[in-house]
Write a structure and sequence with these properties.
The complex is a heterodimer of chains A (60) and B (176).
Chain A lengths: L9 H8 L9 E3 L6 E3 L9 E2 L2 E2 L7
Antiparallel strand pairs in A: 1-2, 3-4
Chain B lengths: L14 H18 L1 E5 H20 L2 H8 L5 H14 L8 E6 L9 E6 L4 H4 L6 H6 L1 H17 L2 H19 L1
Helix pairs in contact in B: 1-2, 1-4, 2-3, 2-4, 7-8
Classes of the chains: A alpha+beta (60), B mainly alpha (176).
The complex binds zinc ion.
């Protein structure tokens, strides 16, 4: 099995990790309450999807 | 090994556990008409429920015995053949609908609502809900919701937000 021969320097480790970035989710607007909502998902705030109330939202 | 010809999910369970889980989910779909579960479980349940309803539409004793192999609950079996099957008499498949919802808090599991496309009037009256929320305030919900539903459509959006907390407070006062 491959085993590291040398300890990796802090710079080498950290410069690799410097490229780890988070990307923001692509958020749409709810047609009912104008709140943020993910695509193809019922709105967590008002529970609407495709113009119909499909579940209880958080605010009710 | 290649997974050619292998269908379905294992759902991290052994065979008996998985079978029992699916039977429970199927029974829940038939009796509740709308369930909230993880997306993979919903998709697996959907596979079976669709086939079962198609069998139920046949309506013969043989079909009933065939379905009974999966649906062991007598109440669910009766409901399936006597009320659900006639409802879908003319629909060529696609008896269920999945609506994706927000990921579960805790393990971030993707969640979905699995529901019958045509629901009984009683079930259709109220939107799908968490069991916990329903149990917590069954009385409080009944009163304000009836008047809120038509209002939500008419009233402008800006007005709706401040109203909701007020209705909640009134409901709470009622229960006390
Ligand atoms: Zn919304």
């Amino acid at each position: 099995m491959g085993v590291p021969k040398k300890r990796m320097s802090r710079q080498k480790r950290d410069s690799r990790r410097a490229n780890w970035k988070v990307t923001a989710p692509n958020v749409n607007t709810c047609t009912n309450c104008t709140g943020p909502v993910l695509a193809h998902r019922a709105c967590p705030a008002c529970g609407h999807y495709k113009g119909k109330e499909v579940m209880k939202g958080a605010e009710e | 090994m290649s997974r050619h010809m292998n269908t379905g999910r294992k759902l991290s369970r052994n065979t008996s556990h998985r079978k029992a889980l699916l039977r429970n989910l199927i029974r829940a779909v038939i009796l509740e008409e709308s369930i909230t579960t993880t997306t993979p479980k919903a998709k697996e349940t959907r596979r079976v429920v669709e086939k079962i309803i198609t069998q139920a539409r046949v309506g013969t004793l043989a079909a009933r015995r065939h379905v009974h192999r999966t649906v062991r609950d007598q109440a669910a079996l009766a409901k399936l053949f006597e009320t659900i099957a006639p409802r879908f008499k003319t629909r060529p498949g696609g008896y269920t609908r999945m609506i994706h919802t927000s990921n579960r808090v805790g393990d971030n599991a993707p969640m979905s609502i699995l529901e019958l496309v045509e629901k009984s009037e009683k079930v259709a009256a109220e939107p799908a809900d968490d069991k916990a929320a329903k149990a917590a305030a069954p009385k409080a919900e009944a009163a304000p919701k009836a008047e809120k539903a038509p209002k939500a459509e008419k009233a402008p959006k800006a007005e709706k937000a401040p109203k909701a907390p007020k209705a909640k407070k009134a409901a709470e006062a009622e229960t006390k």
